[in-house]
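#onboarding

Welcome to the new folks! Below is a worked example of what a typical request in this channel looks like: someone posts a single protein sequence, and someone else replies with the predicted structure as tokens. Don't worry about understanding the tokens yet, we'll cover that in week two.

Example request:
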Amino acid sequence: MNCSLIISVYKNTRFLRAVLHSLYYQTVQDFEVIISEDGESTEMKEFLSRWPFNTPWQHLTQPDEGWRKNRALNRAICAARANHLIFIDGDCVLHPRFIEMHERHFHPNAILAGKRALLNQKLSERIISNPSSIKTLQSFMLMALLWHRGTKRAEEGIFISPDGLLSFIPKSRKLNYLTGCNMSFSREAIEHINGFDEDYVAPAYGEDTDLVWRFQMAGYHFISLRNLAVQYHLWHPLSWTDQSENMALGNSKRMQGEYRCLNGLSKHSPTYSAT
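Example response:
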């Protein structure tokens, strides 16, 4: 298989159903799916046991003891069977060429960075109730750009072929940061910085921003997949938490100048030691 698709989830099977449906429409199918659950939901277990996967899959759980997504992701990395690791969240529906674009631009010494369009509530409900409408999302994004129908960052939901006349547009839209629900890199790259830092026990900063400076300090470069690896975030009420503690911790770590975290991947894999 060419890549491992790691999907972070927490209880919400309704959203995950739409995400898994979007995998059926992928233009490439040589990948495995890893459901990385930060918890042990009975509903999630039963849902996945009935789901008709058409690619290899794994479901990883851990005791629900507060936000420990980074721990779950490190365990997923250890379990992954491919060298190319793609990370998404369980509330992000994929454009049919999403995995193809990550695979096409993959390089072991590069970090691939994409973004997401934020669907409005009405369009999200449409996708959830009728997952086959995923195939029409491109036209909805164009309408959202023209008539501002509540979808945010609609410009990020427009797929532009890298082989077409407009291929210069993705090339000009650079990214030097990561969004944790749309990024990929090699196993070697994430092992080099010892995985996700489990010192972070609140969402956001430690899932992606922390990786940025550590990857950069380790010598990796970023490749933008804007308008190439397109995904659509399903609407839900915001559950944003204060980032001051996360940012203070991150700033302290960055000042120390050590890109390999101490509380990371190596403790889950006895055969691997960060060097």
